[in-house]
Amino acid sequence: MPRNIIEKIWDQHIVSSQEGAPDIIFIDFQLLHEVTSPQAFETLRKRGKSVFSPHRNMATVDHSLPTDQDRKNFADALNQKQIDTLRKNCKEFGIRLYDVDSGHQGIVHVTGPELGLTQPGMTIVCGDSHTSTHGAFGALAFGVGTTQISHVLETSCILLNRPKTMRVHFVGKPSQYFRAKDAILALIQKIGVQGGTGYVLEYTGEFIRNCCMEERMTICNMSIECGARAGLIAPDETTFAFLQETPFGKESLEEKKVFWQSLLTEKGAVYDADVTLDIDGMNPFVTWGTTPAQSVQIHENIPEKEELPESQQSLAEKSLQYTRLSFGQKISGLPIENIFVGSCTNARIGDLREVAAVLKGKKVAPGVRMFIVPGSEQVEKQAIAEGLNKIFIQSGAEFRRPGCSACLAMNGDTIASGERCASTSNRNFVGRQGPGAITHLMSPFMAAIAAIEGKIMNPEEIEEEISSSSPRL
Fold first, then answer.
1. Ordered per-residue pLDDT tens for the chain, 473 residues
2. Which helix (H) or strand (E) holds 316?
3. Alpha helices per DSSP H over 59-203
4. Residue 125: how many CA atoms within 13 Å on its side-chain side?
5. How many Cα atoms within 13 Å fall on the side-chain side of residue 51?
6. Domain check: are 223 and 344 in the same one?
7. Helices and strands (H, E) in the chain, number of each type
8. 170 beta partners
9. Whether residues 238 and 293 fall in one domain
């Protein structure tokens, strides 16, 4: 029977399978950071166990680390303790740690791919919901809890129920200002924050094939925001070209490609669900509420209450009360006080290049704070080599050190209560970027426009100002 890529990867990693019980799945690689790993290591210590396969694990510091130039300027003692504990645990259990100034410290979902540790056909886990990012390489990657982290450390295996599969097929040609971030926001708007629950998604279509690896990572990153366990894109020449430029990915690349290509979904394979998303003529998306599903295209108004399904109306009312907006209100022209370019969704070099193209020769609007946080030290180094940092600084933006930063605001990088932030991150729930902070998710391109205008703007209304900006990464 023809199988899709999700089924193939799953079947290849089954250690044991019994009817009526979860499968025992072998995990090829685990990514670790300072927030969700301490208890897992402590479990090993109490049980007198060692790490089964240290080389199948990699750690970095990202969530709690300051993004100030002074990397020791911790927001509080707990943040410092978390990082010190990770350093101690990695040393004791023999796990490689990409620490500050190693050249590859950064957000775990940025450093793994740039090192080439993320590869097609792998099963990858991390104590972080946005592990789905790695699915861009044709890997089955998903977040796990602390107990599961300890299981993987001790056995390189995990208990899991076989997921359902869903194909998400993009058709049509969007507007010139539409980006990968808009594509995933469009999907979440269509199927809702629970539309993918229980599924692993495979993204297909011409739009996906034309995406670079960075754009694919953006799309897979937010698979979790529609409830999916994971999302992936089949490997192709774009994948292989990216890996060829990475330290670990280029090893035996030609030999591996034969196997990787065998993973592709076979003709006639069936999915448990099939979604087609027509993006023809679509414009950039911006969120207006407190979930990624509450979004509109930039030329649209927030829906009227009666235009929404009855099941969504109560949450919409609460969301608008929090964001201080109204049903039917126009989103374009909304004043903004903060711009955040960063996170595991949009903090790669292509994202920074696009922001620099908009900012070049311009100034961040008066009264607006813009901070740009590279996803890794490698991204930071490349941005400096290309002079992007100078463009940012000359425009009035802050170019900070790598880390998760204001995506979840646990390292001191917060948005003030009542202020709005145009954010390239992945979540906009109540208090995500700080108590009382209001988050509007959008692409780096749209965030850069908001920075120079001081408000969320339709790019078609200011085409002359952004005519020099790159239409794609």
1. 999 999 999 999 999 999 999 999 999 999 999 999 999 999 999 999 999 999 999 999 999 999 999 998 999 999 999 999 999 999 999 999 999 999 999 999 999 999 999 999 999 999 999 999 999 999 999 999 999 999 999 999 999 999 999 999 999 999 999 999 999 999 999 999 999 999 999 999 999 999 999 999 999 999 999 999 999 999 999 999 999 999 999 999 999 999 999 999 999 999 999 999 999 999 999 999 999 999 999 999 999 999 999 999 999 999 999 999 999 999 999 999 999 999 999 999 999 999 999 999 999 999 999 999 999 999 999 999 999 999 999 999 999 999 999 999 999 999 999 999 999 999 999 999 999 999 999 999 999 999 999 999 999 998 777 765 554 54
2. helix 310-323
3. 77-93, 108-115, 146-155, 180-191
4. 23
5. 22
6. no
7. 15, 19
8. 277
9. no
433 and 402, same structural domain?
Answer: yes
Domain check: are 236 and 360 in the same one? Answer: no
Same domain for 418 and 296: yes
- Name every residue whose Cβ is closer than 8 Å to that of residue 312 and which is 6 or more positions away in sequence: none
Same domain, 318 and 226: no
Strand partners, 29: 124
Retrieve residue 249's tokens.
């990915």
**Where in the sequence is the domain holding 349, given as residue range(s)?**
287-462
Q: Any alpha helices (H) in 236-283, and if so which ranges?
A: 237-244, 253-262
pTM for the full predicted model? 0.97
Contact 434, 173 (CB under 8 A): no
Q: Is 145 helix (H, G, I), strand (E, B) or coil?
A: coil
Do the domain assignments include residue 280?
A: no
62 in any annotated domain: yes
Residue 259 placed within a domain:
yes
- Dist. CA 17–CA 24, nearest whole Å: 6
Contact in structure between 122 and 139 (CB atoms under 8 Å): yes
- With beta carbons less than 8 A apart as the criterion, state whether 53 and 24 touch: no
Give me the CATH number covering residue 166. 3.30.499.10
Residues 256 and 314 in one domain: no
Same domain membership, residue 235 and residue 325: no
**DSSP per residue over 398-426, as a string?**
EE--SS-GGGTT-SS--PPTT-EEEE-SS
Are 121 and 9 spatial neighbours (Cβ–Cβ below 8 Å)?
yes
278 inside domain:
no
Neighbours of 266 (CB within 10 A): 14
